Amino acid sequence: MTSRPLLPVHDAVVAGGVVAPARRDLVIEAVGLRKTYRGRGRKAKPVAAVRGVDFAVRAGEIFGFLGPNGAGKSTTLHMLATLIRPDGGSAVIGGADLVRSPARVREVIGLVAQRSGTYDDATGRQELAVQAQMHGMGKAQARGVADATVASFGLAEFADRRIKTYSGGQRRRLDFAIGVIHRPSVMFLDEPTAGLDPPSRAEMWQEVRRLRDNGMTIFLTTHYLDEADALCDRISIIDKGLIVAEGTPSQLKRDIAGDVVTVHLSGPGSAGGADESLLAATIAVLTGLDFVHGVEGVDTAVRLYVDSAATAIPLTISALVRAGIEPVSIEFRRPSLDDVFLAKTGRTLRD
Amino acid sequence: MKLLRDTWLIFRYEAVVMARNPGLIALTLAQPITYLVLFAPFLKIAMAGRGVATYGDAYAIYVPGLFVSMGLFGGLFAGYGLLNAVRQGVVDRCRVTPVSRTGLLLGRALMHVALLEFQATMITIAALPFGLRVGLGELLVAYALLSLVILLSISISYGIALVVRNENSLGILINTVGQPVSLLAGVLIPLSLAPLWVQNVALWNPFAWATEGLRALLTGHFATSAVWQGWLVMVVACALAVWWSIRQFNREVS
């Protein structure tokens, strides 16, 4: 990809005086972060949103938190971005202690939240200038930086219109530009492409990579498998407030040894689907085979985890036929992150 | 210094956004002007035996009441704006920057004060043709006292909004709290006409002290005790309410 310069050079507003990190290349180090929400109302039970997560993000990385809705991704991100005080645990971000000196953390981070964070009646250029001023720039300097950002993020076409007239993709581009206007060393992106159409998503991915190429470290949350796979250098899979797996996408997939064979018991779109007993019988037959490492029933199909699909498929077919079961179709593929999630939690992420 | 700068920055930011809706600002003037034109004339007749001889006298008594009622209700509505900003994510976006969080709330509150002071000015101008006469000095001191009234009710509204976090509850609270407080402040009819027990209850209502102070100023009694008492009560009440709302805000907002 081509890498445009992120922002023109302007005086850094980030103050110095940060504590020395334990390891120089670690930009975020979180240990045992916890958050429990007290329920609202008398009968509400407390909800343990994040139950103690540890992770480390290296400089220049795109690090993703992958998990279903309600897994604790956003809560973790909000804690790191100084918006929610953790109940326990600690974190060091860009050398500053999250709990003891959140003000210093704020000097080195930027946030693009799920909600855009701009007024519908303001214009993009106004919001950019205000954001620059909130980061300590003077009026004239802020205006200059806003203009340069408009150019660098390709916002010129709509920067002087009211934000309420923007498309979803235009809003997101503005949100990104606002979030990085002070050139933070760490960017937090909360579900950066949620609700965007495919072309806008691709554009945002390019934008995220461009930020990284300009030296930023990115921490993002997502519930999209393809986003975690294609965009992130490393990911943590989070479920019910705990990290269940961590690594590069390819590492995680490699840990699910071999291939995934899917046996379909009824064609896609056929009415009614396979009945429960057929599914159960199929699972029972396939579980007994010695080359099968794992079996999961998903809708009207059964997923097998095997070392090699090439040798497993003939053996699978003959075993099924011997038991009087006729599969509709069989396919195989390399494992996806969904298989990783399934293997770790027993559920699929698409649910 | 940083607090002042940040407060001013947020003040201007909010003002620019607000100014993009001039129609809305004009609309909020409709109700006070209606009262000014249709209610105040009643007072001339109702209070004829109590030293009110002309329309000018009636307006000098009613305009301060209108100031307080406008400041009270206008201020109480400020919580809606705050909740809206929270929901749109504007508050979180600002809170991630190094901008002072106290300045974030104060700038927003003071912009609202300025908006309502603008309304008060419009009301004053509208009352002039009806015969209101007031010295510039008295008027400026009255506006300053009114600022505290407005800031007090804004802070109460912010505090409540941050506790309940929902527009419906806020609306119900505004009405149940606002109505008795405004009546007990004598915004429509001076408390001197009220039965003694009402007057005794009103002693506990800071807005009543403010109304008395404002009436003294607009009727040209600058040097009466009502003026300094109104100031004293307002300064104390305002300080407490501002402190409370800032404390609520500086807790977690998200």
Automatic annotation (TrEMBL), chain A:
UniProt cross-references to InterPro entries, sorted A to Z: AAA+_ATPase (IPR003593), ABC_transporter-like_ATP-bd (IPR003439), ABC_transporter-like_CS (IPR017871), DrrA (IPR005894), DrrA1/2-like_C (IPR025302), P-loop_NTPase (IPR027417)
GO terms under biological process: daunorubicin transport; doxorubicin transport
Subcellular location per the Swiss-Prot or TrEMBL entry: Cell membrane
Protein name listed in UniProt: ABC-2 type transport system ATP-binding protein
Organism: Labedaea rhizosphaerae
Membrane topology, record value: Peripheral membrane protein
NCBIfam families listed in its UniProt record: drrA
Alphabetized SUPFAM superfamilies for the sequence: P-loop containing nucleoside triphosphate hydrolases (SSF52540)
PANTHER family linked to this entry: ABC TRANSPORTER, LINEARMYCIN RESISTANCE ATP-BINDING PROTEIN LNRL
MF annotations from Gene Ontology: ATP binding; ATP hydrolysis activity
Gene3D superfamilies (alphabetical): P-loop containing nucleotide triphosphate hydrolases (3.40.50.300)
Keyword Glycosyltransferase applies: no
From TrEMBL, chain B:
Membrane topology field: Multi-pass membrane protein
Transmembrane segments: 21-47, 59-83, 104-128, 140-164, 176-198, 226-246
InterPro entries for this protein: ABC2_TM, ABC2_TM_bact-type, ABC_2_transport, Nod_factor_ABC_transporter
Record domain ABC transmembrane type-2: where: 23-252
GO MF assignments: ABC-type transporter activity
Pfam families membership: ABC2_membrane
Tagged with keyword Membrane: yes
Compartmental location: Cell membrane; Membrane
GO biological process: response to antibiotic
Any one cellular-component term (Gene Ontology): ATP-binding cassette (ABC) transporter complex
Keyword Iron-sulfur: no
Record keywords: Antibiotic resistance, Cell membrane, Membrane, Transmembrane, Transmembrane helix, Transport
Stated family: Belongs to the ABC-2 integral membrane protein family.
Protein name: Transport permease protein
Species in which this protein is naturally found: Labedaea rhizosphaerae
